[in-house]
Every structure is written in C-alpha cells, then in structure tokens.
Amino acid sequence: GDSVTQMEGPVTLSEEACLTINCTYTATGYPSLFWYVQYPGEGLQLLLKATKADDKGSNKGFEATYRKETTSFHLEKGSVQVSDSAVYFCALLAGGYQKVTFGTGTKLQVIP
Amino acid sequence: DVKVTQSSRYLVKRTGEKVFLECVQDMDHENMFWYRQDPGLGLRLIYFSYDVKMKEKGDIPEGYSVSREKKERFSLILESASTNQTSMYLCASINDPGTGDALHFGNGTRLTVT
Q1: 3-state SS assignment for residue B85
Q2: pLDDT tens digit at each of 114 positions of chain B
Q3: B64 to chain A nearest CA, in Å?
C-alpha cells in the first residue's frame, strides 16, 4: 500500500538557520504530494503541493521538489523564523483515489 | 475560503457513553473525512464519505460509525466510548481528489474518555 516516511523530530533550530525535513514515499501510479502544517491548537493547513514529477511547490519561503527518481519530497527553507514553529506533515494522494496518506509528522521548534 | 467547522474543541466523556462529533463544511464538497491524530502515529483515517448517505471504511474503523444525511454535514459516532479512543479528531473535506486538490481541515476536537 501507499506510505509516507518522514524524519522524526523534534527538530530544534535557531532563528535564521536552514531547514530540511526529509520525506520519502511509496505509491502506485503518480501521486500528488503535499506538505501540511499544523500550528499549536489548530487543524492542518496546506503549505504547498506538487502534482507531477519535477514540479516545485513553494509558499511562505518553503520549497519542495517532487523527485520521482528518488521518490522524495523534502521540505526546505533557507531562513526559519520563530513563527515557523509547528508540526509539518508530508502526505500523498494516489491518483484517482480519495484517500490521503500522511507521514507521522515532524515537530519544528525555532528558538530566538 | 473553505470553512470546516467542528462543533466542539474539547470533550470529556465517560467510558461506555455514546459520543457524537459533528463536522460541517460550507463549500459543497463531495468528499468528507474523519481522522484521528495521535503522537508518533500521525493521522489515521477512520471513515470517509464521497456522497450523501455513502461511506467507506478507512484504516481504523473499529469502534466508530459515521452518518452523512446532508452533503455539508459528516458525523462521527463512538457507539460506546473507551479510554483508547482518547485522541484528537480531525474532520476534513476535499473538492476533487483526482485533480490533486488539497484537504481542508477543521480545528479538531480533543476527546478525553475517562
């Protein structure tokens, strides 16, 4: 079946440090890939997405590139802020199905 | 913007009680979902519905049922709550999964069963 593996947290970074959260997947066909973010006390919200190989999703300074050859969708940001502290989930939607498969989430804490 | 509203942020129930969690979306989405979120386990799909009165089991349906009498409303029912159902419950909706649309989530209901 479909699965998503992302790096375990928590990840603690100083403000303005570089961030990478690794995500790899297994899926049938050609899935769409997503990063969701969950701020404290809230539900998940879409951060960025990519629907085909080599697409780059970007939002709020975050980027991720759909790499079919390595089945990866790593999340990156060049300079994190305290306000980026949240839990980040990698997810996939296999083509034609309604089910979204999530990774276990990575908690990011950014300290001033 | 799509709004997904869960009726309660926090609930405390006793073992054996029947529990209803309500979710309403305002964007005419066909598909609605119930997930539970637990530390270290991520989000796990309980049930989903792709149309009124239609439902499909997700990955962990045991101990739960659902109801979708109207398109905008999707209810999760715990027939007899147990302590291992203490969790964060998240409702979500999506317009057309086939086009790579993203899920829209409510803010969650944190249920404690004592």
Answers
A1: helix
A2: 669 999 999 999 999 999 999 999 998 999 999 999 998 888 999 999 988 989 999 989 999 999 999 999 999 999 999 999 999 999 999 887 666 778 899 999 999 999
A3: 18
Residue from the list A43, A103, A104 with its beta carbon closest to the beta carbon of B107: A43
Query: Do you know the residue count of chain A?
Result: 112
DSSP A37-92: EE-TTS-EEEEEEE-STT-EEEETTEEEE-BTTTTB--EEESS--GGG-EEEEEEE
Query: A98 and B48 in contact by Cβ < 8 A?
Result: yes
Is A103 in the B-facing interface, judged by CB distances under 8 Å? yes
> What is the DSSP track for A6-41?
E--S-EEEETT--EEE-EEEE-SS--EEEEEEE-TT
Least Cα distance to A44 among A90, A7, A99 occurs for A90
Query: Mean of the per-residue pLDDT values for chain A?
Result: 93
Strand partners, A69: none
CB of B2 closer than 8 Å to CB of B27: yes
Q: Are strands B73-78 and B19-21 parallel, antiparallel or unpaired?
A: antiparallel
